[in-house]
Amino acid sequence: ANWAPYAQWAGLSLPVYIETGSKTNHMGFMEDLLFTHRGLSGPGVLQISSYWQDKTPIRINLAPEPSLTEKLLQAKQRSQKLISNELGVWLPHRLAETWVQHDAAWQRAINQATDKALLHLGQSLSGWELTPSGTEGYAKAEVTAGGVDTRDLSSQTMESKQKGLYFIGEVVDVTGWLGGYNFQWAWASAYACAQALANQLANP
After folding, report:
1. What is the mean pLDDT of residues 89-93?
2. 142 CB contacts (<8 Å, ≥6 apart)?
3. How far apart are CA 76 and CA 61, in angstroms?
4. Is the pLDDT of residue 130 over 70?
C-alpha cells in the first residue's frame, strides 16, 4: 500500500484492536499501535506479525472505545464543535483532524452532520483495512517463527530422537507473545535440558 498519506502520523501511538485472518479463523490483539515514517509498528503490529500471512489484509479498530458511533450520535445532540474536535476525545487530535479529510460530510460541526455520515465515520475508524506490502526484514525483526519441530523432542529433557542431541530456546518451533514469554521459554527449556544432562552425567 502507498504509505505517503499516512506518513504525516509518524510518532503517533494509540491503543487499537488489530486482527488478521478470516472471520472464522482469525487472531486479534488489543495493543498499542505506532505510526512511523515507513509504516506501522508497536506492540500490536509485533503481536499480529506472528499470524499475518503475506499479501493478506490486517484490520485495525483505531477507536476501540465501546459504542463509538453511538457516542458520536449523542454528541450531535449536545455539541456544536467540529466533528474532528469531538473525535479528539477518543483519538489523537492529529489523527482525528486528518481522518475527517476522507469525506466532506465529516468536515463540519457535528450537529450539522447526518446520522448516516456519523455511522460511516464510526465504521471507517473501527474497520480500517490495509494489506502490508511486507516487513522491514530480518535485520529489524523482533519476532521469529519456525524451528525444530517439538514433536521430535522430549518435552521433559529437550533431547531429540537422535540420542545426545538437544535443542532449546528459539531454535525450537515455539513462538511466544510479547511480554517475556520467549525469554521464559528459553530459560525453562534450558533448565530442563541442563537437568537432563546433569542426571545423565550422574547416572551414566
Report:
1. 92
2. 46
3. 22
4. yes
CA distances to 40, 50, 56, 64 from 130, rounded to whole Å, are: 11, 17, 9, 17
Q: Using CA atoms, how far apart are residues 98 and 84, in angstroms rounded to an integer?
A: 8
**Cα–Cα distances in angstroms (integers) from residue 53 to residues 47, 89, 105, 163, 181, in the given order:** 13, 34, 35, 36, 22
pLDDT in tens, 134-156: 888 878 777 677 899 999 999 99
Dump the DSSP string for 83-135.
HHHHHTTTS-HHHHHHHGGG-GGGSSBGGGS-HHHHHHHHHHHHTEEE-----
Q: Is 106 exposed, middle or buried (0-12, 13-18, 19+ CB in 10 A)?
A: buried
Q: How many CB atoms lie within 10 A of CB 119?
A: 14
